[in-house]
Amino acid sequence: MDAPALWRSMINGDQSAFLELYNEFYQPLYAFGFRVHGNAQLVKDCIHEVFCEIWSGRATLPLVQQPRAYLFTYVKRKILKEVKVLSINTDEVVDTQHGIEQSYEDMLVSAEQDAEMKTKLQHFMSQLSATQQAILRLKYYENLTYEQIAAQLSLQPRTVYNKLYEALKTMRQCLRVLLLPILLAMA
Amino acid sequence: MDFKLYKAEDFAADESFIRYFQQSDEQDVQFWQNWIRCNPDRLTEIITAETMLARLLGHIPQQELEAEQARMMAFLAQQPVEQPPVQPLNIPPAPRHMLRTVLAAAVLAGILIAAGLWLLSGRQRQYTPLQWTSFSSAPTQRTTIELPDGSTIQLNASTHIRYAQTAAKDSLIVALDGEAFFTIARNDKRIFIVQGGDMIVNVLGTSFNMSYYPESGKSRVALVNGKLKVVATSPEGIILVPNEAITYHAGQTTLSKATFDATTELGWRENKLYFDHADFPEIALQLKRLYNITCINRSKVVNMQYTGHFDNVGYKQVVASICYANDLRYTTANDTVFIQQ
Predict the structure, then answer these.
(1) What does CATH list as the number for B271-340?
(2) Locate the RNA polymerase sigma factor 70 region 4 type domain: which residues (chain A) (predicted)?
């Protein structure tokens, strides 16, 4: 079933369709939410609340054609509202007008729970050239194709690919030691 | 394009593979799920690629995701169970009445089961941690394990192995720490992989000796009969034929084959200890594994070497012979041997 069909079943009270939507969109929503605000717990809470509100209020929900866009907007609003409340309570100045997006590098590092991995990632990022960092961001954050990235940076698509490949190779070296236990646990 | 030659970096840079990982394209998801199933020997590269992508895409770690899913299940369980307005025939009413009457404890159990089923079904990532079965042999002890299919694994002293079935159900992966002799029944349908550090051996119905010592980062495999594929530096791997062996040190970039002497290589199976131009770290490693003795070199001799063999003797005799050959003395204290001038 595709997303609009799942949405329809969900509105009609089908819990498994609701769970399928949740499973399908959780990771993209989390990655997106993290760009809106860099507090993992807050993002998780907001996504949880959004899904709770959707399930509770399913009878009054519209039949949307683009559940993905609907969910993204919903989560973004939720996070911004939450941040506003937080900033009033804590007197923290948060410029919601101009967004509170953090840099891609900061996002990657702050997403990491493990302290050792944090250091490794920081080390990895510091080894990359400015172009390589930009390519990583455009590829994995903005989700652009090699052609689009090439056009934006005035490079050949092949060059973009090669630079990205080099960055990934560096990343693998940096993470190598820490990856091993994961591999052994999963292999 | 031959994906079999792909390394983790290639997968992580491949647009189709990224779409599979993001689950944004059904065709890519199906293609890669199928490909991974058919190529279990590429599993480590795939998992490495997925681990890198999870970081680059800012994904939530699996454990936290499961915690969030459990949280959602708990929320759903609290919600009043109501008749779905459009699909009245979907669920028979009886179970719902029962659900209302069960006790809180039973509801909690239900949540856990539902969460479990939910985690198992649907669009979960394929690599849930596998169930490993472990076997160890103590220092000075040798053990033989028999697998359900009649294959046997003979473990040298202080050896630890774990084995698990891979995602492609009929395949086995064995992780080795120490030394073991494998006699594996031929089965063309199954894939049998032994991993010793960075060296991965794809078993094609054989008997062979393999060792991996994390202390020295050295992996070695010696084939007695049958056929083996060894992968360490390049994904293509090298095919071994009987009487050939490969040694691999962590970080090495090329692999080369050599013939081996079966008496030396397999001597441990008859309680013999062989040294062939063994240096101090090698000697210390063997003494630790075999006798649980820590050997410390306090002499100024850094390039000591020993060639020779021992037939079922105690550690003191081994140390005495090595010291004699290098013109050194030794003292013992508890489980430690000090080698001196």
Answers:
(1) 3.55.50.30
(2) 120-171
